[in-house]
């Protein structure tokens, strides 16, 4: 097999193969070994085994075959021969504990101090680490260096055996005069590690051997006593104390053993340290004393011990918090009572002025608040911003605390520095019961805050808190008060936000409807502008004469309100040019739409080949070329869009009555009406949707059945053709589709007209729609995208008019009608706004014409392709259809009137593509069907087979099997991946090497890939002709570039790579939060993470910065950058970018990130 690391195969014996020799050495086959020794020209030559070169003597020493080792020694083989990684036979025998073989090798003059090349460790170190006493004694007897240190960590044999609890080995090394104070690279001594792990007898032996008990390790400055105290090893603590140790030695952060024992809550340890006269008031660098730290963590037994030892109960840390403050903050009642009993100052303030009762009130710790009140705490002391205990408890809605403070004579009208009162902040946050308590305590309902001059009634109205508004009105709040900045009254604010119930309450309380803001806007104006019809009705009822320029007329038509919000200085022509230019710069041009179509066809081809099914079709906006993303056309699917996949079910063929021309007398023809055939027994659910993420778009899976022919296609009828402006070539293609019914088959889906669910199947014209959309010119496509934006983001979106019922299919139909009815000479960039307005008017007129009492099912327009077929509102029940249609008509009217400013918003939402016009396409990331297929042995590997080979490799990497056969099989599987998956292949190789223990080889692989870059997309400049974008071009790109490095896989449970460090194992693969069982792999991110983890990049921070600056960096690349950034601020900036782009980050990764941030914070603090 081709080994990992690409080492060349060595020359093999003509008589006995290398594999036979190694197996013989492993199994003890003396006959084969003898034959080999007779025939071999070089008895010391090495052979490939598990990715490294070793000799048969190595293997025999490893497995313990004494007879084979004796034969080799008799033949005078080199007993110090080192493997490819520098390991000698004596290393192998020592590690495995084969004492007899060690003895044989030593007698044969093997070098007992020889070191391997990876860790620079000697055989004695290996034996000591693994607790092989007899081997250790044998090596000591042979004068092995008892203080030989392993190079990577600096561990000595004594350290390693102390770390692993090998008492007898420790004693043997001490007896051999090993240096008991020899520290590892971190400065930890054997005594330190034994104390950390709680090995009492080893500690005792080391102390008896005069180990330095005060030796501090160099990372944190911890002593053996400190680490034993931290881990609660009280017997070891006693042992150390009895050895006359210094009990007050502090770490670099100033923590003493008593501090850390108090923090961890080890009362026995604390008691022993107090008896040893440890300083109970010794403070760490932030000023925390043992008592403060124990109080903060609620360790009441420790607190009692420290108080009894005369610890200062009022000793504050640097920021001024006392032990009582921190106990109160964290809700530790028993500790609080102990400290009060010990005469703690209940009014001691922190640097920012906070008292214990303040912090307990803010946290809602009622029993602690009551205890502090009983201890005469001052309830009106204010912190530096002026917040009182009552203020913060009211702010957070802690009703019982509020009541206790009021009972204790807290000042209910005490204002903080900006003038906010407890009543104001409770009103702001919707705490109605708190508001009532404060009012009962005579809180002033009209006290104003200083900055804006707003009252509690203003802020309660702003938050929509109806109950509080009514409470304040009843308490005599001033109704018509205007705030200082804009002059808004409570009525104006309620009208602006559409709070009709609050408006009603304010009107009943005689609020003045005529009061305007300083800009001249009235409550009626702002309600009309924001389309709050119920508020408008209430205001109109309250005042019959309203300025008609500000409101709807009696027919419900909006007047010129939009003129107040938008300057009409720009003409339609100028706006058209700006809109066309912005859309063009964002990639919405015909050539890029064609490239999108070609990519969809390639995705369909991959899907068909994987599933061996030519009746699978990629349809919808992803395939139609336009509207799959409303920000730019660069191959990426909008998170709110989807990929539609339709499967034609075999064996089902329906025959529409009146259109079927089949001559088989046995067939049953089905009645056809209103675009549906009669077919009882089918559920009305055309699509099985899934939810999209930034990494994988939503998918709609649709099953369909063939229809033997198309019904009458309206735009192909002569009366329509004669007036049609659809290009003749397109009409001809449509006619061919209808006539052949093979490549674009007519079909039915599981959907019915309103009220007919379970009785009908809907006829779908998706292939004809696809033909039409794929034929759109640049300007026609831009019209379609603009209309789709206005419907999805303005009319239907919660941030817009929030009106449901209109759907993208209505936009598609309107676009088709525009193409059919608009002469070619009118399709000019200067006319784009006029065309958009005309399309909206067309949709408006269609909806308005269907506003009839008998339209119970919500018919909105005619189907474009199917004659006498209606389209309906989306998701509207029959009781609401007339009302919804009426609202759609008025909303479309408003959109038409406000079109200029809405188009300016649309322009602002567009994202220009970069100069290279990068077009993103990762088939295996968006593959609609993730069902695994059996890996085949085609040679070379077909593109569609890459997915399953990578998946199989990942699965094998998670298994515990590390046998030679497993390694060979995985290596062969990985090697099948072609160069178009180069980065994926090399990353898998590196993972395999790490799993099987070939660290150096892994480092070599990732290092060799440092200068290589994946292809991040198809370079597609704006001026490329449409004809250049085709199926073959996309396929050529995929096969000739390193393009295949993003994958989504379905697994029953998350694959775990146990051999990776925690950080990498948490990141790879990344679970998609709203797609159970779906996992994302980015091989480029994985290779970067391996480079960073293995430290094969010199200036790794610049590499991280390069990733974070990429506009197209995905979640996994950004998470990798955040995880490895050396600066906490940079890491958090990357994390915030993920949050802004609505990435959903698994809790496990968030936890690892937080640990990383804590490490960076601590490192920064230590450096300071």
TrEMBL record:
Q: Where does the source fall among the domains of life?
A: Eukaryota
Residue stretches spanning the membrane: none
Q: Does the keyword section mention Repeat?
A: yes
Pfam name, any one: Ank
InterPro entries this protein is in? Ankyrin_rpt (IPR002110), Ankyrin_rpt-contain_sf (IPR036770)
Note the segments forming the ANK repeats.
52-84, 85-117, 119-151, 153-185, 186-218, 220-252, 253-285, 286-318, 319-351, 352-384, 385-417, 418-450, 452-484, 486-518, 519-547
**Keyword entries, A-Z:** ANK repeat, Repeat
Does the record bear Nuclease in its keywords? no
Against SMART domains, the record matches this protein to: ANK (SM00248)
Q: What is this protein called?
A: Uncharacterized protein
Biological source species: Macrostomum lignano
């Amino acid at each position: 097999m081709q080994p990992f690391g690409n080492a060349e195969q060595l020359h093999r014996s003509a008589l006995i193969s290398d594999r036979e020799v190694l197996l013989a050495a492993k199994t003890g086959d003396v006959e084969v070994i003898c034959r080999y020794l007779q025939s071999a020209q070089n008895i010391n030559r090495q052979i490939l085994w598990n990715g490294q070169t070793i000799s048969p003597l190595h293997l025999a020493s490893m497995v313990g075959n004494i007879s084979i080792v004796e034969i080799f020694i008799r033949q005078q083989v080199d007993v110090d021969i080192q493997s490819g990684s520098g390991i000698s036979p004596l290393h192998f025998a020592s590690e495995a504990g084969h004492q007899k073989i060690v003895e044989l090798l030593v007698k044969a003059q093997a070098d007992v101090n020889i070191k391997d090349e990876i860790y620079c460790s000697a055989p004695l170190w290996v034996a000591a680490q693994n607790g092989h006493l007899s081997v250790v004694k044998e090596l000591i007897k042979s004068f092995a260096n008892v203080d030989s240190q392993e190079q990577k960590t600096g561990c000595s044999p004594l350290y390693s055996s102390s770390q692993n609890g090998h008492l007898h080995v420790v004693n043997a090394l001490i007896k051999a005069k090993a240096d008991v104070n020899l520290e590892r690279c971190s400065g930890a001594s054997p005594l330190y590690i034994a104390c950390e792990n709680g090995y009492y007898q080893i500690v005792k032996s080391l102390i008896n051997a005069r180990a330095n008990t005060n030796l501090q390790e160099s990372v944190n400055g911890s002593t053996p006593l400190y680490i034993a105290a931290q881990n609660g090893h009280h017997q070891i603590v006693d042992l150390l104390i009895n050895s006359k140790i210094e009990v007050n030695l502090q770490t670099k952060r100033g923590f003493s053993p008593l501090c850390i024992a108090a923090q961890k809550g080890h009362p026995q340890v604390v008691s022993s340290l107090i008896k040893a006269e440890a300083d109970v008031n010794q403070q760490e660098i932030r000023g925390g004393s043992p008592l403060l730290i124990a109080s903060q963590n609620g360790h009441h037994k420790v607190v009692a011990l420290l108080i009894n030892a005369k610890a200062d109960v009022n000793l504050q840390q640097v920021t001024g918090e006392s032990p009582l403050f921190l106990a109160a903050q964290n809700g530790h009642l028993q500790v609080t009572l102990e400290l009060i009993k010990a005469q703690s100052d209940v009014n001691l303030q922190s640097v920012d002025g906070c008292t214990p009762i303040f912090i307990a009130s803010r946290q809602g710790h009622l029993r602690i608040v009551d205890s502090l009140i009983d201890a005469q705490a001052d309830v009106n002391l204010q912190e530096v911003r002026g917040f009182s205990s009552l203020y913060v408890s009211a702010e957070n809605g802690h009703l019982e605390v509020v009541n206790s403070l009021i009972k204790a004579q807290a000042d209910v009208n005490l204002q903080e520095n900006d003038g906010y009162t407890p009543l104001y902040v409770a009103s702001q946050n919707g705490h109605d019961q708190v508001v009532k308590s404060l009012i009962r305590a005579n809180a002033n309902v009209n006290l104003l805050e200083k900055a804006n001059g707003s009252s509690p009634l203003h802020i309660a109205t702003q938050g929509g808190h109806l109950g509080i508004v009514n409470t304040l009105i009843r308490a005599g709040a001033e109704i018509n008060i205007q705030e200082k900045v804009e002059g808004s009254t409570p009525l104006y604010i309620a009208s602006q936000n559409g709070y009709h119930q609050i408006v009603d309450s304010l009107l009943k309380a005689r609020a003045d409807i005529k009061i305007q803001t300083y800009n001249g806007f009235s409550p009626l104006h702002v309600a009309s502008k924001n389309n709050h019809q119920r508020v408008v009705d209430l205001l109109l009822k309250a005042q019959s004469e309203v300025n008609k320029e500000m409101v709807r007329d009696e027919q419900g038509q909006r007047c010129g309100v939009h003129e107040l919000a938008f300057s009409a200085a720009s003409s339609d022509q100028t706006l058209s040019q700006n809109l066309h230019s912005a859309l063009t710069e964002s990639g919405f041009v015909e050539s890029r739409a064609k490239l999108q179509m070609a990519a969809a066809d390639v995705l369909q081809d991959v899907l068909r080949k994987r599933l061996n099914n030519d009746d699978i079709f990629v349809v919808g906006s992803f395939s139609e070329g336009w509207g799959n993303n409303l920000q730019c056309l660069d191959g990426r699917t909008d998170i709110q869009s989807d990929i539609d996949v339709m499967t034609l079910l075999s064996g089902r063929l329906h025959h529409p009555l009146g259109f079927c021309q089949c001559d088989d007398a046995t067939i049953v023809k089905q009645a056809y009406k209103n675009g549906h055939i009669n077919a009882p027994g089918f559920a009305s659910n055309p699509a099985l949707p899934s939810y999209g993420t930034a990494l994988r778009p939503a998918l709609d899976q649709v099953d369909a059945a063939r229809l033997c022919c198309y019904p009458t296609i309206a735009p192909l009828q002569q009366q329509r053709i004669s007036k049609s402006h659809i290009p003749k070539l397109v009409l001809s293609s449509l006619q061919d589709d209808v006539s052949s019914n093979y490549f674009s088959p007519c079909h039915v889906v599981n959907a019915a007209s309103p009220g007919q669910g379970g009785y009908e199947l809907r006829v779908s014209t998706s292939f004809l729609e696809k033909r039409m959309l794929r034929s759109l010119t640049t300007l026609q496509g831009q019209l379609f995208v603009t209309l789709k934006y206005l419907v999805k983001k303005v009319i239907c979106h919660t941030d817009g008019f929030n009106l449901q019922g209109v759907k993208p299919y209505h936009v598609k139909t309107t676009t088709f009608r525009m193409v059919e009815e608009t002469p070619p000479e009118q399709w000019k960039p200067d006319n784009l706004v006029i065309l958009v307005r005309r399309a909206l008017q067309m949709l408006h007129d269609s909806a308005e014409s269907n506003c009839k009492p008998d339209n119970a099912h919500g018919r909105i327009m005619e189907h474009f392709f199917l004659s006498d077929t209606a389209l309906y509102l989306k998701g509207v029940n029959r009781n609401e259809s007339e009302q919804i249609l009426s609202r759609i008509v008025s909303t479309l009217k408003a959109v038409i009137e406000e079109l200029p400013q809405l188009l300016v918003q649309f322009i602002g939402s567009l994202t220009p593509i970069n100069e290279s016009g990068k077009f993103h396409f990762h088939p295996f990331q968006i593959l609609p069907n993730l069902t695994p297929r059996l890996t085949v042995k085609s040679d070379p590997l077909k593109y569609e087979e890459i997915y399953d080979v990578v998946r199989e490799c990942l699965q094998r990497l998670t298994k515990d099997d590390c046998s030679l056969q497993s390694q060979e099989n995985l290596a062969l599987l990985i090697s099948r991946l072609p160069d178009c998956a180069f980065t994926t292949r090399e990353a898998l190789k590196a993972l395999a090497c790490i799993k099987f223990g070939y660290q150096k080889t892994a480092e070599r692989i990732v290092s060799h890939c440092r200068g290589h870059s994946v292809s991040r997309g198809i370079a597609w400049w704006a001026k490329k002709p449409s004809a250049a974008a085709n199926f073959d071009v996309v396929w050529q790109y995929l096969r000739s570039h390193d393009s295949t490095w993003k994958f989504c896989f379905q697994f029953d449970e998350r694959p775990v790579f146990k051999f990776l460090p925690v950080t990498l194992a948490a990141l790879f693969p990344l679970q998609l939060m709203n797609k159970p069982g779906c996992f994302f792999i980015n091989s480029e991110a994985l290779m970067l993470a391996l480079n960073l983890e293995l430290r094969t990049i010199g200036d790794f921070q610049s590499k991280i910065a390069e990733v974070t600056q990429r506009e197209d960096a995905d979640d996994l690349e950004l998470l990798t950058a955040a995880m490895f950034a050396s600066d906490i601020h940079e890491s958090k900036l990357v994390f915030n970018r993920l949050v802004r782009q609505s990435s959903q980050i698994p809790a496990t990764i968030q936890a690892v990130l937080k640990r990383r941030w804590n490490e960076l914070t601590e490192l920064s603090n230590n450096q300071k």
